[in-house]
Every structure is written in structure tokens, then in C-alpha cells.
Amino acid sequence: MLEIQVKTFEELTKLELYSLLQLRSEVFVVEQDCVYQDIDGKDQKALHVLGFKKEKLIAYTRIFKPGDYFKEPSIGRVVVIKSERAYKYGYNIVEASIKAISEHFNTSLIKISAQVYLIKFYTDLGFKTIGEEYLEDDIPHIAMIKE
Length: 147
What we know:
Oligomer: single chain
CATH class: Alpha Beta
Radius of gyration: 14 Å
Strand content: 35-45%
Strand order of the largest sheet: 1-2-3-4
Largest sheet: 4 strands, antiparallel
Structural class: alpha+beta
CATH architecture: 3-Layer(aba) Sandwich
Order of helices and strands: EHEEEHEHEE
CATH superfamily: Gcn5-related N-acetyltransferase (GNAT)
Number of strands: 7
């Protein structure tokens, strides 16, 4: 089971910030072979949902209040280190993010921009696709909503 912590940007330690940026780069830039600007200036507005196993950061998301990313609250940068994906920690970190949105923003409505290959994963968590597929950083995505 993951130890979950939710922190503002200011509450992150230097080591936590370094670890989350390293994890995001490892997966989104190197593993997915996608050159894009991960450090996008939005981390300062986000709440960071950190998933630790034996004090090592292995899962992460960032969440936004309504209006900071989409009109609705949102979850982004959903990531689990490759060596731990077999344990389904993706479900744990997204469920923790849904709970954090409910607790911090007092709503169950969430919009995400999901990579198309993860539609089933997000559908299992209660999200529904809306609209058409689109390319984001040359990767097929689709908007999804959870009410």
C-alpha cells in the first residue's frame, strides 16, 4: 500500500521536488520518448499528491482547483515508476487524487486529459470520455469527465 501525502508547492521539500521532477522526466520524457516542457510553470498552483513505498516516491499526480487548468478541477501528470506498475498503484494514486479534490475543493466533478491507451484505466475509476481524440505533445489524448 502507498503512503499518500498531499502538499502545496511551498510544502514540498527539496528532495520531494527533485524526486517528483525526476520521476516525471523518467516516464514522460525518456520512457515515452517525448520531448516536451514538463516544467511548465503550473506546479506552483497545483496540489501535489505523492505516493511513497518504503520512503521512495513511486507514484505521483498533481491536482488543480477549478479554473487553474480547466474550468473544472483536474488531475494531471499521473505517473507510476515502471518497476512498480504491476502492483496497480496507478489506481491508488488516482483514487487518492479524487479524494483530495473532494476534500480540498468540495466537489466530485473532475476533468482530465487522458492518454488514449489509458481510457479503460480511467473508465474503471469512473471517468467517461467526452469529445474527440486530439494530439497533445504528439501523443493521442482524449478529454474525460468524472461527476
